[in-house]
Amino acid sequence: MSRQGFFRFTGRIALITLAGLLGACGHKTESETPPVAPAAAPAPADSTESDVTIDSGDRSFEITDKVQPWPSEMPAEVPHFAAGTIRKIIRTETPEGRSWDMAIDGIPSNSVKAFVDALKEAGFETSSLIVPEKEGDRGSVTGLKGELTVVLIASGGNATLSVILKE
To answer: What are the boundaries of the region Disordered (predicted)?
Structure first.
């Protein structure tokens, strides 16, 4: 190969390499491009509605997120827990039974102990662990009567009350 041929060959390779590099600089690799976020779809919790019902075949769930009175469909054997304000109720219906789960705010001192006494009066077998505190009683109560199970868990003036009815 002559000297002139060598320079032509080397020059063409250099031009092709330079053109490839300059072309590649204008494109971002996949890791450099920001991912496109999917559009947000409103979830039931994002809705302005305070009630949400979910039906799933033979199961139904209803969530009520507002101040509520004692549920009217609650089994009559369950003593009314009148202390505090019911802030949320989740009602569940399945082939195995029904349940009510309530979030209760502002329960006064001694209300947990009073509920244990009310459960015993209504014929429930109870087990409980109660620790008195200045913010209110803290502890848990379980009551069993036939196909009914009642569980109250309290702490710092707030409580959750679950009632389960097996059918």
So the answer is: 29-55
- Give pLDDT tens digits for 102-144: 999 998 888 899 999 999 999 999 999 988 777 777 899 999 9
Q: Which residues pair with 139 in a beta bridge?
A: 130, 154
Q: Report if residue 88 sits inside a domain.
A: yes
**Please, are residues 165 and 147 in contact by the beta-carbon 8 Å criterion?**
yes
CATH of the domain at 73: 3.40.1000
Q: Nearest CA to 85 among 74, 69, 97, 64?
A: 69
Q: How far apart are CA 141 and CA 128, in angstroms?
A: 4
Q: Which residues pair with 105 in a beta bridge?
A: 85, 158
Report how far residue 90's alpha carbon sits from residue 110's, in angstroms, rounded to the nearest whole number.
25
Per the structure block, which two tokens stand in for 99? 């349940």
Q: Domain count of the chain? A: 1
Residue 70: is its pLDDT beyond 60? yes
101 assigned to some structural domain: yes
Return the bridge partners of 127, or none. 142
Residue type, position 11, single letter:
G
